[in-house]
Amino acid sequence: MDAIKVQPLVVNYKTLEEFKRFKEYGNQELSMLEDLQNNIIENNSTSPFFGIYYGSALIARMSLYKVPSKYNYYFEPRDEYLELWKLEVLPDYQKQGYGEMLVEFAKGYRLPIKTNPRVNSHGFWERMGFDKLSYDMERDLGENPLGWRPTGVEEQNAS
Ligand SMILES: CC(C)(COP(=O)(O)OP(=O)(O)OC[C@H]1O[C@@H](n2cnc3c(N)ncnc32)[C@H](O)[C@@H]1OP(=O)(O)O)[C@@H](O)C(=O)NCCC(=O)NCCS
Questions:
Q1: Could you give all domains of the chain from N- to C-terminal order, each with its CATH number?
Q2: How far is ligand 1, taken at its centre, from the CA of residue 122, in Å?
Q3: Counting atoms of ligand 1 from 1, which one is nearest the CA of 119?
Q4: 83-126: per-residue pLDDT in tens?
Q5: Distance CA 2, CA 52 (A)
Q6: Is 105 in the pocket of ligand 1 (CB under 6 A)?
Q7: Alpha carbon of 95 to ligand 1 centroid (Å)
Q8: Whole-prediction pTM value?
Q9: CB 126 less than 6 A from any atom of ligand 1
Q10: What is the mean pLDDT of residues 4-21?
């Protein structure tokens, strides 16, 4: 079996079928499927997802977007940052380090990371060195964002 590692996930029918096993399956996946069916994107286009395969099975994944600096309302300096979401490890594979492997991969870009955690996962994020970003009513409506900052990056003052 290949060494277990984080890899970019391509958009194809096989990947989208694998995505159905994850709880956080929704509009993002459905719109990728539609784009594929309508030939708007090619089979094997790169997706914003990264994942871990165990043998031929996708067992963990996350979506990771680079947000342009002009939309950076969170970190100082106002450079680009990463938005991490849909981090999920399939139940049989939890607590074996795969979640951490994905987060470490994201940290490897040396950009600040923002995430909006699921209920009950705060302990994990704390363990990964993520802090609560101060809550800004207009900016954060419906979210309780957490952030990780590489050295030299601060949180923007929430207005
Ligand atoms: C939250 C999630 C992404 C973590 O991934 P994982 O692969 O299970 O976590 P890891 O094995 O990489 O854990 C890394 C560290 O975080 C800790 N940790 C993991 N989940 C935790 C949790 N819910 N609370 C506190 N600590 C947690 C681990 O014990 C480990 O610490 P250690 O290095 O001291 O042993 C994964 O469990 C998941 O997808 N869960 C889906 C459901 C969910 O959100 N559950 C939350 C708990 S109900």
A1: 6-152 (3.40.630.30)
A2: 9
A3: 44
A4: 999 999 999 999 999 999 999 999 999 999 999 998 889 999 99
A5: 11
A6: no
A7: 5
A8: 0.94
A9: no
A10: 96
